[in-house]
Design brief:
This protein has helices at 45-48, 79-92, 105-116, 132-137, 141-147, and strands spanning 6-11, 16-23, 27-31, 53-57, 98-103, 121-127, 150-154, 160-164. With 183 residues, the protein is α/β, with parallel strands linked by helices.
């Protein structure tokens, strides 16, 4: 797996990042999704390496990369921090500008990187992700009503919260139905 690629560990400002590098050409960073590691790219990376210098890393907290302690605000795992790690890795490897491909969580990291480092990211490709701005931009009251789940207290069965879909909007209406009365 990853024949012709070299493994590396780069000490960044927030964590040590593990990855592999191979190929020759314009630099291309591959970022994995959940619950994967850089190994998810093992079938794609060798083909890309014929045209690119491919770098595939484990995001902070995954695989063989560092797992710093979290904080009350989870800031060590904020996408801004995770993206900064990746920029530092690429700089360490001699790449000031590079393309990025991200899958799932890696796509979130790639978006953040492109926003924070537009002079660094030359191209961006994202897979299996809903654009955050679109998702939140469409989250109006109708959406909220359709997506809201009513937590009911079910003392008879388990004595804890259960999920009920009763608060979802009725088909053809724009307002949510009233949830069942709580006892």
């Amino acid at each position: 797996m990853f024949e012709g690629f070299e493994e590396f560990d780069v000490a960044c400002s927030g964590a040590t990042i593990h990855g592999r590098r191979g190929g020759d050409g314009p630099p291309l960073l591959l970022l994995h999704g959940i619950p994967e590691t850089h190994l998810m790219w093992h079938r794609v990376a060798p083909g890309l390496a014929s045209e690119f210098t491919v770098v595939a890393t484990d995001l902070r907290g995954y695989g063989d990369s560092g797992k710093p302690a979290s904080a009350d605000d989870h800031s060590p795992y904020a996408m801004r921090q995770v993206a900064q790690d990746q920029v530092e890795v690429m700089q360490h490897l001699g790449h000031e500008r590079f393309g990025v491909v991200g899958h799932d969580r890696g796509a979130r990291c790639a978006y953040r990187m492109a926003l924070d480092h537009p002079q660094t990211v030359t191209s961006l490709s994202v897979l299996d992700i809903v654009p955050t701005g679109d998702a939140f931009g469409r989250a109006d009251m109708e959406y909220r009503g359709a997506a809201t789940l009513d937590l009911e207290h079910d003392e008879a069965d388990r004595g804890g919260p259960t999920i009920s879909a009763a608060a979802r909007s009725s088909p053809g209406t724009s307002s949510p139905r009233k949830p069942p009365a709580r006892s």
